[in-house]
């Protein structure tokens, strides 16, 4: 469904991605793991058109999209939920959700969009309870649900999630990852997930890639990565002397 082949990305003189290749099949959850500065967010930004690769190729459903405009990628179904949620604080929960369907109003119509908003409230009941509340007054976990709900109103074919657990308490992290898992089970969603919480990400993912300094250094099934000693040492808090 989504294939990235040998892409290179530069920020000025900084070589942020170096010949990175990954693929995501339909209805898969694929995790991108790595520390700060490893290139995870840059890779999502390249896929969603926010940054342009200097070389390489990105293909979606068999069509090259390497240099497509962001708005065309959104209409094609590539939807990016950025790091930090970036909801509209002064707007209500409902208005934040409706903005996710902005590009679809002329075709789908207001009635259909309103019905889809109600479906989001079914998936995330706490948002329904706060539909008139300003987005900026929600808790961190509720804002993450709102950001994902807004993305779903864009009718994604592949959902790019950047650090959905950032800044959240462990209990809320578990809840967010349960919701992400449900998106695949109930909606058949294809998800590319960037996450520093390797244990939580691999618990719901089918496969994963590990990035370091702009390169893919490991890849495999979730089970293989969880059992890998380098992954355990670097991302799961296990050293030679056992759990820390």
Quick gist of this model?
The protein has helices spanning 40-47, 70-76, 93-100, 105-108, 110-123, 125-129, 140-152, 170-187, 198-204, 222-227, 229-235, and strands at 2-11, 14-24, 29-33, 55-60, 63-64, 78-81, 158-162, 190-194, 207-212, 215-221, 238-239, 242-243. By secondary structure, it is of the alpha/beta class. Helix 3 packs parallel to helix 7 (140-152).
Could you say which overall geometry the principal axes of the C-alpha atoms support? globular
**What separation lies between the terminal Cα atoms?**
39 Å
Average pLDDT for all residues: 91
Number of domains: 1
Helix content: 25-40%
Spell the H/E element sequence.
EEEHEEHEHHHHHEHEHEEHHEE
Total number of strands: 12
Major sheet characteristics: 6 strands, mixed
Which homologous superfamily in CATH is the superfamily? P-loop containing nucleotide triphosphate hydrolases
> Which structural class should the secondary elements be placed in?
alpha/beta
In angstroms, what is the radius of gyration?
18 Å
CATH topology: Rossmann fold
Helix run count: 11
Share of residues in strands: 25-35%
Oligomeric status: single chain
Summarize this structure as a short list of keywords or feature phrases.
244 residues, single chain, Rossmann fold, alpha/beta, six-stranded mixed beta sheet, disordered C terminus
Descriptive notes:
The protein is an alpha/beta fold. It has one domain: P-loop containing nucleotide triphosphate hydrolases (Rossmann fold). The chain has 11 helices and 12 strands. Strands 6-7-8-3-9-10 form a 6-stranded mixed sheet, with helices on both faces. The protein has a 4-stranded antiparallel sheet with strand order 2-1-4-5, covered by helices on one side. α3 runs parallel beside α7. The C terminus is likely disordered.
């Amino acid at each position: 469904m989504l294939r990235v082949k040998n892409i290179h990305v530069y920020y000025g003189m900084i070589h942020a991605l170096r010949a990175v290749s990954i693929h995501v099949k339909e209805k898969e959850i694929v995790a991108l793991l790595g520390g700060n500065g490893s290139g995870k967010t840059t890779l999502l930004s390249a896929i969603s058109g926010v940054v342009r690769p200097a070389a390489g190729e990105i293909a979606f459903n068999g069509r090259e999209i390497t240099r497509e405009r962001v708005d065309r990628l959104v209409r094609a179904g590539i939807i990016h939920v950025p790091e930090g949620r970036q909801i509209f604080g002064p707007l209500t929960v409902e208005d934040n959700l409706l903005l996710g369907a902005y590009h679809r109003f002329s075709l789908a119509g207001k009635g259909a969009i309103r019905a889809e908003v109600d479906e989001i409230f079914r998936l995330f009941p706490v948002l329904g309870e706060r539909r008139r509340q300003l987005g900026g007054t929600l808790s961190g976990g509720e804002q993450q649900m709102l950001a994902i709900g807004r993305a779903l109103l864009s009718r994604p074919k592949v959902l790019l999630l950047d650090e959905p657990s950032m800044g959240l308490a462990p209990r809320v992290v578990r809840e967010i990852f349960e919701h992400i898992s449900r998106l695949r089970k109930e909606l058949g969603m294809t998800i590319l997930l960037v996450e520093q919480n390797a244990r939580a990400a691999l618990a719901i993912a089918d496969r994963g890639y590990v990035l370091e300094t702009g390169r893919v250094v490991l890849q495999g099934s979730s089970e293989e990565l969880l059992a890998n000693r380098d992954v355990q040492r670097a991302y799961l808090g296990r050293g030679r002397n056992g759990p820390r």
